[in-house]
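Subject: Interface between my chains keeps coming out wrong

I've been trying for a while to get a sensible model of this assembly. When I model each chain on its own everything looks fine, but I need the whole thing in one frame so I can look at the contacts. Pasting all components below, labels as-is. Any help appreciated, I'm running out of ideas.
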Amino acid sequence: MADVTFTVDGKKLTAPAGTLLIEACRAHGIEIPAFCYYPGLSLQAACRMCVVRIEKVPKLQTACTTPVAEGMVVVTESPEIAQARKATIELLLGNHPLDCPVCDAGGECELQDMTFKYGAHESKFVDIKNHRDEQQWSPVVYFDRPRCILCYRCVRVCGEGMDVWALGIQNRGSGSVIAPNGQDHLDCEECGMCIDICPVGALTSGTYRYKTRPWEMSHVGTVCTHCGDGCKTTLGVRRANDGMEIVRGDNRDKSGINGDFLCIKGRYGFDFANREDRLTQPLVRQPSGELKPVSWDEAIDFAGKRLRELRDARGGQTIGVIGSNRTTNEESYLLQKFARAVLGTNNIDHHRTADYPAFAAAMNGESEASLRDFASAKAVLLLGNDPTEQHPGLAWQIRTGVRLRGQHLYVANHQNIKLRRQATSFLRIRENDYAALITYLAGDDSALDRNGEAKAFRDAIRGEGSLIIVFGSEFRGSDVEALVKFGSSLPNVQLACLGDYANSRGAADMGLYPDLLPGYVPVIAAAHFAQEYGASLPSQPGLDLLQMFDAAGHGELAALYVVGANPVARYNIDPASLRNTFIVAQDLFLTETARLADVVFPAANLYEKSGSVTNTFGDLQLVKKAADRAGTRADFELIVRLAVAMGADVKQLVPFGHRGVRADMGQARGAQSGEADRHGVWLAAHHLEPKLSPFDPFAIFDEIQRLVPAYEVPRLDLLSGNDQHLRSGLVQIQHAATRRDVVWPSNDTLFTSGTLGRYSRTMSSVLESREPAETAAD
Amino acid sequence: MASPAQPGTIFSPALAARFDRLVTLYPVRRSALVPMLLYAQDEIGYVSDAVVAEVAARIGITELDVRNVVSYYSLLKTRPAGKYHVQVCTNISCMLRGGNEILDHCKKKLGIPNKGVTPDGVFSLEEVECIGACSWAPAAQVNYAFHENLTPESMDQVLSDYRAKAPNGEGK
Ligand code: SF4
Ligand code: SF4
Ligand code: SF4
Ligand code: FES
Ligand code: FES
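Reply #2:
Try treating it as a single job with all components included. I did that and got this:
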């Protein structure tokens, strides 16, 4: 829209016609107070805090509902306005308890701040305040009615933002009260968006309430460890007896790819990290059969020597390595390098949740959509998957696009997934018709039972000027290829492939495959990798995960190294089949897999280390060390130490100390990493080289950038905490021979997250509180 | 969202048919909400959980949406009232002309407090704001009938007339 010019507090400003005055002012650094206004939600005009004086208009006007107009003259602060705001606050405080000293929001409360600013600390009201006891509405959500200032933000974010509509407003006037949909409890998605958005301490969370004071925490912006969306989450941490504990996860940094959003997992699912039963000492199996705690040196020496013996005696091809969906890119990369260059095996795999290699091969220069793109896309075609459950961040982005930008959403699914409610057009297909659907969309009328609905669906999609196609793990192998091919026949298409965990994509990109090196380079064409690694790499594809366990069953797997994975439970492996395999496992907990191991190393989780992760959309982000648990070590360090114990040359494994590399400037040393990062940014900007250690993930990141050109993104931006979309052209392969399909989607819901999720009390308590029949929100 | 056509209904066939039509009369279905609630309350006696559920399903909104509206209007009741619901006005005009005395008299006579229901279920009592009969204050409304220019004596008469109308044991 055309720009209009207007005057605020004597300054001439311009903004597009139609912009709300409050937004126009904010964009120019003029802050107008607001309780009920919230960007992106419908206008409420309930609180009157935003009143301003507009010339020639008799009464004070609400800046949150007034669009700017040509020639408008506005005053945003004056004694008259201050008096009006003060009166508003005084009314709000009429029945507001003075429990700031114990309120969760104390110190970061908008009502407190406004009272401080306008000084409405005295009340003319003499009536006794109407007290109501706090209510627990769900395992996550608590409501303290007297603190509520009736701004309706919670009601709107739950309804408009989440499409759950679990909160309402009941009664009338000063008796009005926020009410949950189950009368005395909530049936909802437990996202905590309502708690986050509440300007006061009326809505509080089960995990955080009465735990600490806001100023006792340090805040570290990092990436959620759960699903493949990679939302940015800010962890509030404080010192504990055995390190730094996480007390809060929230979304104070709205600059992330997830915008305003976090789901229950990103917001509250950090609690596994604080569990008492975490492994904090290395364990080694004794002749008696018991796993016994031993010193680090003893455990690492033992594991290293044994692995070396087995490699030398029986050959690298009898050793298997299973990597993780939640370790950093640097760790996954290092793990495959260790497997190939030190163990001498291509038997390396991970729990695959999407067919990224097929996607990478098919893409061939097509553009991949970032998670950010979904909120602004004109049209989205969603094939398979149920993002509300499996990719909550994506579902949020899509709902935002539909709600605020009139995005057209096309959904084809074999189930009535919740996002159909946002769909311009929803096509219900049979579970095994996904491939046929693509053939049909590409123009072959005989592929689907012809009906008008499918035809209208196809016509509408083809009529779009630009489109993001996003698909679930229903598509594998040649189906992915056909899908990408169909996509490339349309104008301005971007694609996205959905996989399940925080760094599944990174695990794939970093070559945790028996047949593919980092960047999807086939092992049979390993030339420049061999050169770089200075070792002769095994050139034949190794065993995939299932084949490794088969080999173990036949007594042909001498050793297995499992990093941050629980294949025994996931693939239901018979423990007896592993009787003759030497197993080294590193994990947070004594999982079903760790329980069978001969050596167990206590590992740090994603919130306790630094490095980078790649979400399923190819957004590369920095993770920062927020928490710390005494007795655990990062997987990166463990791999290096194991390699050293095997007699490998550490400089060869981690090329630290070369020119032009960057270093850990303290991210690994505690919660004050913000400062260290700023230091790192400064160093990078000045082409300086900090000191390095072999445990520094950034040393290996240099190598990744060298060998996987798609990862060559501006380092400075990454270090400053901005997500960077991978450069297209990740693929370096000509389409490899047909590969065995061992993709196994995890089918997590909003309240599960693989093995890790089972260790989150918040998530389990939500599951326990539910009746068998779920999705009350639908 | 539930489909509007409900196989089983808690309402009489006539009312169910009326509702079927009502939801089609407005540009948006939820505009039928308040009239439906009023009719439902007349038939069932109050807005029960079952009423909330069926009205929500008929319109295609959540039960929470229905409760939000029900709780806004004091004339919609979520608990059973008596067969005769006595509403005594105590707003300005009535107050000046003895409305509070009428209310107190009713409390004593019926032996129930404001918002109470007699044990036999025949009467319930409620203090209300202006019912638009100021010219004939003090006034009271029993169900939909107005009674004006009241005195304690005429109020007694009103109550006993209704009592006589209620068959024994009526009002559950
Ligand atoms: S879904 Fe639940 S937790 Fe999320 S905003 Fe709604 S009421 Fe709050
Ligand atoms: S609970 Fe919080 S967000 Fe909701 S209306 Fe009250 S003050 Fe606003
Ligand atoms: S949507 Fe995924 S990445 Fe985002 S907070 Fe939830 S689990 Fe974490
Ligand atoms: S912010 Fe404008 S009325 Fe509340
Ligand atoms: S004041 Fe009682 S009817 Fe108006």
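Reply #3:
Confirming on my end. The CA atoms of residues 45 and 152 of chain B lie 28 Å apart.
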